[in-house]
Amino acid sequence: MSSKSKVKVGVQLHPQATTVSALREAWRAADAMGVDSIWLWDHFYPLYGDADAEHYEAYTLLAAMAVETSHAQIGALVTCNSYRNPNLLADMARTIDILSDGRFVLGIGSGWFERDYTEYGFEFGTAPERLRALRDALPVIKARLAKLNPPAVGPMPLMIGGSGEKVTLRLTAEHANAWNSFGPPEKFAAKNAILNEWCAKIGRDPAEIERTVAIETKDVGNCAKYVEAGANHLIVMTGSPFDLDAVAKLQELAAS
User: Fold this and answer.
1) Which of 74, 81, 100, 237 is 20 to 30 Å apart from 90, CA to CA?
2) Considering all CA atoms of the chain, what is the largest pairwise distance in Å, rounded to the nearest integer?
3) What gap in Å lies between CA 11 and CA 8, rounded to an integer?
4) Beta strands 178-182; 79-80: pairing state
């Protein structure tokens, strides 16, 4: 797979229907493989399979991941803005960044999984309301990060996840260092082009925003199509038992 610059390879470990021991073994193995990034998701219940299977909270796991890995960037793909006060989220992110020696990425989105909200007592509201809340939270997060003592030690990129053309991609152009979305490649290419349009409208260099895409293990063979569509960081999503062979295959393809 040819590209003008190195294609990054990451893995998202689904914290459902598994054990903490298995998660720890997987993220240590992934880090030893030299992946560029390791991610969890920010939910309170499984997203597929047994709805009441084992499940674990993202940010406490990320703190453990921070001290048990040494190479990869780490983060939540992506944090739900609704679940934490934005000032608190900034402080949590800063602290994990310090624990990781500067490898944390603050991924964030407006939220969508209704069960999380209803079971934990958050107001679900409407999609526009959640997007407005994200819009309002982003400058608060940035302001708190600038005030914290000590500050984050790494660049701590801000990633926004989502593909809404009118609000999410505009917020990405305005605030983010990275963007995450999904396939298929044709859809990713279309959304990527709209993000570039928003960058042009506000005077932002589109090259300043890393383009990440989350793919299933079965889509690893299509990685060249995602790169052609504009992705420069491919993240394999895997649940227990964690398929690191697919990640290794993607590493091989990305290096070719």
Assistant:
1) 237
2) 48
3) 10
4) unpaired
Hey, what are 48's tokens? 């597929």
Q: Among 58, 30, 2, which Cα is nearest to 235's?
A: 30
Residue tagged 């959640």 (tokens) = 130
Q: How far is CA 72 from CA 4, 9, 119, 129, 187, in A?
A: 22, 10, 33, 34, 28
CB neighbour list of residue 215: distance below 8 Å, 6 or more residues apart: 182, 183, 222, 223, 226, 234, 235, 236, 237
Cα torsion angle, 123, 82, 135, 212, sign: negative
**What is the pLDDT of the chain when averaged over all its residues?**
97
The backbone region for 17, taken as left when phi is positive above 0, alpha when psi lies in -120 to 50, beta otherwise, is left
The sign of the torsion formed by the CA atoms of 146, 152, 156, 161 equals: negative
Query: Can you give 56-76 as a three-state secondary structure string?
Result: CCHHHHHHHHHHHCCCCEEEE
Q: What is the spatial distance between Cα 18 and Cα 70, in angstroms, rounded to a whole number?
A: 23
Q: What's 101's DSSP letter?
A: T
pLDDT tens profile 16-74: 999 999 999 999 999 999 999 999 999 999 999 999 999 999 999 999 999 999 999 99
- What's the number of CA atoms in the CB half-sphere (13 Å) around residue 8? 19
149-208: per-residue pLDDT in tens?
Answer: 999 999 999 999 999 999 999 999 999 999 999 999 999 999 999 999 999 999 999 999
